[in-house]
Amino acid sequence: MTEGRTPADGSAQLNTGVAHNARVWNYWIGGKDNYAVDQQVGEQVAGMFPVIRDIARADREFLGRAVRFLAEEHGVRQFLDIGTGLPTGDNTHEIAQRVAPDARIVYVDNDPIVLAHARALLTGTPHGRTDYIDADVHDPQAILERASGTLDFTQPVAVMMLGILNFVLDDDKARDIATRVMAAVPSGSFLVLTHPTTDDEVGGAGQVPAMEFWNKNATPPITARTGAEIMTFFEGLELLEPGLVSCSVWRAGSDSPVVVPQYGAVAVKP
Ligand SMILES: C[S@@+](CC[C@H](N)C(=O)[O-])C[C@H]1O[C@@H](n2cnc3c(N)ncnc32)[C@H](O)[C@@H]1O
């Protein structure tokens, strides 16, 4: 097994007095790596907006389907997973390396608790590689430079931005991050994205007061966007079928899952 872990230069200290997104997300998907403050805020948000647990689970299931689809049907062997979250049952490297043991995965997150649990993300196959980078999505150049130690940027990469651009509050900045990262990867690379939406046809209106509560009581601050705004993150890319849809229904086969106000899509760089 080849693995690496980039040290936490300047990473934030673990703060158990304020709810953190990585830990509350872990709470909503039924994990144990969270504190009392995360459980309290998680319950309050779920009280206002019960579908949040469905969103968190649907997002993880989308991740599984998208990684399998790209590894099996498009031969992708490199994954850059930005905004990884806490390790859970099936992480990107486990899903990808089941299909292709030589797959390389670089994880990126800036939460100190994800860094503390990063060892569980670095348990790849002997033929593959995994790395963890403690970095902020607002600095894509630093992420790309450090990821180039593990990933070969002359070969296709699946860039995974699941539930992460919603923490970049400025629309232009969020678009710029997606554009910069996709500019660094070759033709045949993919952008895999999920993002919460305000669109009411998928139940997004209820998300707004819950996010206002979150922004007063937890960290980091979050925003939801319309489908049209999220579509701009795919500029210059070609969306694969079925396009930008509730992440729960994206290639869900014959299941008919509950629609959630979290869009998911996969696009290819032509
Ligand atoms: C909603 S969770 C999503 C986790 C995983 N991608 C998934 O879809 O299940 C968002 C993750 O983004 C991380 N995050 C938030 N802001 C970030 C930033 N500025 N830079 C890097 N990671 C960030 C959080 O720590 C958290 O682990």
Automatic annotation (TrEMBL):
It holds the Pfam family Methyltransf_19. It is an enzyme of class 2 (transferase). SUPFAM superfamilies: S-adenosyl-L-methionine-dependent methyltransferases. InterPro entries: SAM-dependent_MTases_sf, SAM_dep_MeTrfase_SAV2177_type. The keyword Transferase applies. One of its GO terms (molecular function) is methyltransferase activity. GO terms for biological process: methylation. Its EC number is 2.1.1.-. It comes from the Bacteria. Gene3D superfamilies: Vaccinia Virus protein VP39. The keyword Ion transport does not apply. Keywords: Methyltransferase, Transferase. This is SAM-dependent methyltransferase.
